[in-house]
Design goal:
Oligomer: homodimer
Structural class of chain A: alpha/beta
Number of strands of chain A: 13
CATH superfamily of the largest domain in chain A: Type I PLP-dependent aspartate aminotransferase-like (Major domain)
CATH topology of the largest domain in chain A: Aspartate Aminotransferase, domain 2
Radius of gyration of chain A: 22 Å
Shape of chain A: globular
CATH class of the largest domain in chain A: Alpha Beta
Helix content of chain A: 40-55%
Number of helices of chain A: 13
Strand order of the largest sheet of chain A: 2-8-7-6-5-3-4
Strand content of chain A: 5-15%
Order of helices and strands of chain A: HHEHHEHEHEHEHEEEHHHEEHEEEH
Chain lengths: 404, 404
């Protein structure tokens, strides 16, 4: 036996996280403070301050006790595929059948599988900056090359036809990942933006991967899926999840809705990557969806209330700007009047007031000079934190600043 | 807008299943017969005829009710990582810490992640023929090139140094996937085979991916992990699962044990592919592991009984041969005396006696002329089915056959 050199890990897995800071420094500092016994108001991550409804957990337990503890069929159980298909048909008007639905262990798993289906290794996958934190890593994990399309705060961070088309041409892209209602911006894409996306996708033969996990959290306007636009049902993969709509984040239950031939191939992938989703969790999801809009509205209600609170607080000052707050459990604030980066501001706010927010830069260069608040603490605490934040920003404004 | 050509799916996802028959024809025919109301004795897939123990389900429900329904930490909850590490340390003698353990949504997910970590796209991943049905597809899903190492029935389907070394040299392989106790053969690799594997791996800088999901089902001899051999802890990724050991197939809960730097990178991958495992399922796994060997023996007992039944039946005839039955819930029978392929025999057996078994060819060319029985029906039915199978084989023997 020769003196051995240990084998090397794949370049792919070594580079998933990319280079440089991952933008979670403030988050981890806040967690360390909490662990050390300090009181911190955490407005960082998108997790409800309620737990999964006990009735959903009871339904899960009943299914497990009744014996649904063996392997579940790979595309998902029929009852759940049918429930998801019926819901999508009802919400979008696009006829959707069981055969268009793959059940996945959560939305993140669906995002990964969708990119595995749409992109060959080395092909470019487009996404919109600012973006949810895992997007570039998900694309890299699938062996594709992430390419951000920058947007501007002045445009409410909305992409347009030219930006998408130019990026698709420049990189010979295979796919475009979009997200409405948007995390981190809280913007709900208007029809005109979705038409731009559809035109660019059809012009450049792009798959559209549409992350719609916040579809039940709409404060202004209406959710529109790109799959519902003319010609788009054949080239769109919709990613959905029970995490945000039903406070089932930990249950890891989601889906992909796509053309039947895509679902067939995604089932092959699932056989070799996940081997399906626990049957009793799928049964619980069927139960939860059967509760209809009432339960979804109950889960969304705290964010709706806090968003209204936030609007009244923000209207009473002229230091902190905000991106139109139309949906999702987040608020994107513009603190450029302080002359600080989002990261510097977030660190200062944590040090001075023990309030933790995410720097805009955590979600891409486009959101520099912004911070994202998750509206995930009790109303009183949330209001106090936002008022404190605004006062703090006011004290940081350079003396030569003139509010617009 | 131009007339659009629909975008294409990735070559990768189109080719996951490879070409040709997938070998599941008998299985699907049997399922169709059952659906049509016929009585079929199904000895096809590796799923217990018991359900998950109610005490485990109760522990799961308690955890969910207590609020463990939010995102769980990505490498896995500390209590479960510690429990797995302690169990591996105890069973193998190799010091194993929490930092060596990643919790995954099942063993299949662990197999995929391990190949993602070890192989760059286009690199060769070796595996032993005969093999568990998903192995080549899992390797293809990870973008690597599957290369089987053929073994012979006469060697109990055990690989040796030369076969592995030759394959590693010929293909510049990055990894070697091994499985003991073995599905489909029921063989438990002896120390000499594992030493061959270790020598070949160290000589050729191979990662060893060791699928040990049947480690609690041992009828003869003892389970030995390649990770326990000198120098191997630095280049072995062990795949484990609660599916077979605790009848938790549907709960999708497993793990990878590997060097700490590998687990760190696998955590990056998990963040972007699964986003973790339900916390209440992890709590249930902690509870199940805390029951110790007694529960594991209770779950294995039916297979131990049926294997003993099978040995007494097989000793009473000289038509059907068998591969040494040492572990796992399977029995690999040699029906070459009939002059038939495994597939032809399995189809004839299904048609004539409504007994469904898997053709050996479903698990690779090396197992041609064999059939695999899963010992997953009640003892009486199992014994009757095996006796019927032996009589049926006897009637099929060509008149010029002389038993050895």
């Amino acid at each position: 036996m020769k003196a051995s050199v240990m084998p090397h890990l794949s370049s792919r897995i070594l580079s998933i996280n990319g280079s440089g800071s991952d933008g979670w420094g403030v988050f981890y500092r806040a967690r360390a403070m909490v662990a050390a016994g300090e009181m911190v108001t955490e407005l960082t991550i998108g997790e409800h301050d309620i737990r999964t409804h006990p009735a959903i957990l009871d339904a899960m337990h009943r299914a497990a006790q009744a014996g649904h503890t063996g392997y579940a069929t790979i595309p998902g159980i029929t009852a759940l595929r049918d429930a998801v298909a019926a819901r999508i048909t009802r919400n979008t008007g696009i006829p959707t059948a069981r055969e268009n639905v793959l059940i996945t262990p959560g939305g993140q798993s669906a995002l990964f599988a969708a990119h595995m289906a749409c992109c060959n290794p080395g092909e470019t996958a487009l996404y919109i900056d600012p973006y949810y934190a895992t997007y570039p890593g998900t694309i890299r994990a699938a062996g594709a090359v992430p390419q951000a399309i920058a947007t501007r705060a002045e445009d409410s961070f909305l992409p347009d036809y030219d930006r998408i088309s130019d990026a698709a041409l420049a990189h010979g892209a295979a796919s475009l990942l979009v997200n409405t209602p948007n995390n981190p911006t809280g913007v709900v894409y208007p029809r005109s933006t979705l038409e731009d996306i559809a035109h660019a996708a059809l012009d450049h033969d792009l798959w559209v991967i549409s992350d719609e996990v916040y579809e039940t959290q709409i404060w202004e306007g209406a959710h529109l899926s790109p799959r519902a636009l003319p010609g788009m049902d054949q080239c769109t993969l919709v990613v959905g999840s029970m995490s945000k709509s039903h406070a089932m984040t930990g249950s890891r239950i989601g889906w992909i809705v796509a053309p039947e031939h895509v679902i067939e191939k995604l089932s092959d992938l699932a056989t070799n990557t996940t081997y399906g989703v626990p049957g009793y969790i799928q049964d619980a999801a069927v139960f939860a969806l059967a509760q209809g809009a009432a339960l979804e509205e109950e889960v969304a209600a705290p964010f709706r209330r806090r968003r209204a609170l936030a609007m009244s607080i923000l209207e009473g000052q002229n230091v902190v700007g905000h991106i139109p707050s139309q949906g999702a459990m987040y608020l994107m604030l513009d603190i450029r009047s302080t002359g600080m980066t989002g990261e510097a501001f977030a660190n200062a706010l944590l040090d001075t007031h023990r309030i933790a927010v995410m720097p805009g830069e955590s979600f891409g260069a486009a959101a520099s000079g912004h911070i994202r608040l998750a509206m995930t603490v009790a109303d009183d605490s949330f209001a106090v934190a936002l008022q404190t934040l605004c006062s703090f920003a006011g004290m940081l404004i350079p003396s030569d600043f003139a509010p617009a």
